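User: Can you predict the 3D structure for this chain?
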Amino acid sequence: MRIIVTGGAGFIGSALVRYLVSQVGADVLCIDKLTYAGNLASLKAIENKPNYRFLKADICDRAAMTDAIETFRPNHIMHLAAESHVDRSINAAGDFIETNIQGTFVLLEAARHYYATLSGEEKEAFRFLHVSTDEVYGSLGEDGLFLETTPYDPSSPYSASKAASDHLAIAWQRTYGLPVVVSNCSNNYGPYHFPEKLIPLNILNALEGKPLPVYGDGSNIRDWLYVDDHARALHLIASKGRIGEKYNVGGRNERRNIDVVQKICATLDSAFPDRPPHERLITFVADRPGHDHRYAIDATKLETELGWKAEETFESGIVRTVEWYLANEWWWEPLRGGVYSGERLGVLKKA
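Assistant: Here is the predicted structure, written as structure tokens:
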């Protein structure tokens, strides 16, 4: 099995690459532009494996994508490359439009032309998995879950750009017959998570005795998915998912943001019993513009059709995550010191 993973040096991408190389035994070509969120240190554990190789390239570069696909001759393309942080999209929407929409178009076209050259078993086996987010669905009320049939209602430049790329992927299947499958996941967490996101930001701030910022009143709810569970799901969807279908991936772990931060504090209190309670550091800050209130995924289709089930509960996963950050300062300290130091992002500037 030969698999191309775009965005493979990012958080979810690197977890997927590590899984495919180490546990599936696939030959993997990892493609990444290595922007601020791409980090080859996340792939250190498999960098010398004979079934792994890396290509630094931009998915918007049609020549580079065409050459990579035609040279490597993948059975699967798993497309994760994206600008992904909502707060950054508020102040730099153009980057999201370029990468998430134009980049997906370029990759779909390169894959379409490659697919047209295949025959027999190679053509039968080929799949293009487009990996997306539950944020395309907008905000839920107090009840209900996102289904694969939930209408799109994006609220941020990020989610709007991902919604557009989802539509492109499905259109390329319906119009050109490209064997596309789409996945939409809930909020991921776990090791190697870039420290601007809620969980790693608050772990590292707490370790350094800095304020733990919580937007609004902390009542916003997310459905948390451990990243290794997601990696397993993506391989399963690419291998066995039905062409033209969408599969929602969620951990069935709904938590308010304030509860997530308090759980981090309690876990660190156990690790450092001589310190003052970390919860004293919690600081409520002005809410994010367009902040969706609640996300929650119904993963029944994935669970019943393909037999996937999340293995980590939030309680077990958050402990594993905190312990990983405590044991792996070598990974996060260079990022914290030079790439992103914890400053607030996504604040609207006055005209």
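The CA atoms of residues 210 and 220 lie 22 Å apart. The chain has twelve helices and twelve strands.
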